[in-house]
């Protein structure tokens, strides 16, 4: 009898421990199906975000306004880890190979070919976008870039963070009538040898977007880039673009024998007066630099009449994020109208919001109009009328290869 009691006692202990273990696993890896789940499991956690750290304005926005806001709102400690996309992609790939779970990151700043690689390689967790209230309330869910990232179906595996469009910056002290198309740019460059250049491909995102923009005007067939074609056909289509930039090379800064290695170096050349134009994706950055006295008041921004490439950037959750619920709380805050308008301010970041303006409440719309009233600022409506769609991600790779082989080499 005593033996039977001992056996029953031991079985009871095993069952209790099994129950505790199961409950613990559910707490560590909860099912996230509602906003309430995110609040229950996401508060008072640490969220590590891997993101490019090469822009001081972005870093200050994240380390200041965003970090303070999510701490006050949810008790979340935001840890920004500066890392280039190629580095964090390798990091996630290595963690996947090593079956490391939980991993070391909760969020990544991502888009285009990196998203394609991460999604196809099973490096992302999702789908999750239907859990985000700000996205569902303030965004146009039918918008192309909420469903496709450079032609890649998003399917809920990344959440839009912002939009961007290539804009040009010039000093009216030296450039009274800036060129309004690539054809005019060629004429201007030849009349002002050594005073224009663009960041080097394949590594610089801005330089690559500048070349992609040229395709729309010089090829003359806007629909071609939205269709599928093989690499040989694309190379044939690219001939007028490659010829254009080969012709331009001798009239560039350093006669085209060298290019700025980054947008930052391009901006520095502009600031020092070595070149008279620069370019970038932050639509309010120039206005902020004028306000800060970095650029003189003669510096202005514009876009070509023929349009410029516009694209979007996103946030995604790694497959092995240890704090997925907290990561989604941070994403939802970053998508809020308040956070989107804050990053639009020229003195903050100058990054274009991704929300739909016709869904904003009156007070938020008023805040947006206040930011856009800056005389050095280009309004979103003006840019939208001159926005060219992003090409498929595989074409971006091919353009970089062609430029490196034919132009930059």
Automatic annotation (TrEMBL):
Family annotation (Gene3D superfamilies): Periplasmic binding protein-like II
Signal peptide per UniProt: 1-26
Keyword GTP-binding: no
UniProt feature coiled coil, ranges: none
InterPro entries: SBP (IPR006059), YnjB (IPR027020)
UniProt keyword annotation of Transport present: no
Assigned keywords, A-Z: Signal
NCBIfam families given in the database record: PRK11622.1 (NF008633)
Protein name (record): ABC transporter substrate-binding protein
The organism of origin for this protein: Clostridium formicaceticum
């Amino acid at each position: 009898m005593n033996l039977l009691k001992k056996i029953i006692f031991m079985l009871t202990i095993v069952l209790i421990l099994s129950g505790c273990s199961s409950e613990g696993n559910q707490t560590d890896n909860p099912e996230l199906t509602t906003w309430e789940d995110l609040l229950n499991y996401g508060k008072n956690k640490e969220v590590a975000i891997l993101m490019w750290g090469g822009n001081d304005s972005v870093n200050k926005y994240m380390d200041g306004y965003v970090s303070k806001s999510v701490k006050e709102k949810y008790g979340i400690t935001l840890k920004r880890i500066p890392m280039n996309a190629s580095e964090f992609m390798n990091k996630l790939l290595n963690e996947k190979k090593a079956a490391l779970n939980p991993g070391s990151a909760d969020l990544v700043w991502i888009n285009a070919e990196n998203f394609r690689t991460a999604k196809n390689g099973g490096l992302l967790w999702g789908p999750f976008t239907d859990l985000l209230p700000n996205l569902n309330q303030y965004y146009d869910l039918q918008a192309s870039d909420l469903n496709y990232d450079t032609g890649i179906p998003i399917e809920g595996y990344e959440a839009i963070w912002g939009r961007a469009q290539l804009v040009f910056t010039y000093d009216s002290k030296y450039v009274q009538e800036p060129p309004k198309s690539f054809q005019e740019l060629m004429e201007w460059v030849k009349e002002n040898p050594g005073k224009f250049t663009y960041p080097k491909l394949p590594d610089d995102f801005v330089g690559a977007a500048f070349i992609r923009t040229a395709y729309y005007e010089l090829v003359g067939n806007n629909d071609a880039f939205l269709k599928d074609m093989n690499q040989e056909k694309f190379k044939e289509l690219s001939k007028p673009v490659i010829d254009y930039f080969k012709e331009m090379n001798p009239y560039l800064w350093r006669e085209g024998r060298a290019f700025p290695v980054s947008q930052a170096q391009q901006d520095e050349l502009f600031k020092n007066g070595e070149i008279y134009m620069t370019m970038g994706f932050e639509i309010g950055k120039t206005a902020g630099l004028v306000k800060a006295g970095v650029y003189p008041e003669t510096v202005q921004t514009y876009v070509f009449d023929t349009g410029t490439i516009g694209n979007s950037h996103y946030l995604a959750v790694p497959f092995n994020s240890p704090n997925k619920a907290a990561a989604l709380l941070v994403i939802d805050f970053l998508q809020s109208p308040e956070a989107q308008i804050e990053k639009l301010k020229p003195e903050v970041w100058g990054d274009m919001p991704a929300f739909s303006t016709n869904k904003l409440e009156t007070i938020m719309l008023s805040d947006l109009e206040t930011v856009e009233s800056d005389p050095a600022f280009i309004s979103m409506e003006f840019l939208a009328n001159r926005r060219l769609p992003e090409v498929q991600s595989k074409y971006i790779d091919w353009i970089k290869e062609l430029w490196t082989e034919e132009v930059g080499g």
